[in-house]
Design a protein that fits this description.
Elements lengths: L1 H11 L7 H9 L9 H19 L2 H5 L45 E4 L2 E4 L3
Helix pairs in contact: 1-3
Length: 121
Amino acid sequence: MRSHGNIMDAALGLHSEQSARGNIRLAAFFFDSAHPGYAAKRAAVERAQKALDGEFKAPGDEIGWFHPSVDIDNESGQTHGGQQYPDDSLVARFYFPSTIPGHHLPHTWLERENEKMAMRD
């Protein structure tokens, strides 16, 4: 947590050696469009968000992981439906719903005895 916190802290101008009041003062002009440093601070935060996107927006890592050993008939081909790069690393930023053996089944609604429920329930 500390490494990604430092990226956003740096963008906002926050420092652990500084008092809470000092950090609040430095971060405050992120919200003050009249402050001369406003545009630079907003640009720095936007760059930090882009740098952190792979960590915080990673549905491929969160729900796209799979068990390749279950795919005994090699139904997936080389990229497991797009979820895997040719070098075998996982595509982290995107999730590709798949019914290939070893993958989690995609979400869908089912009905049993007139009761609607999520497939995973």
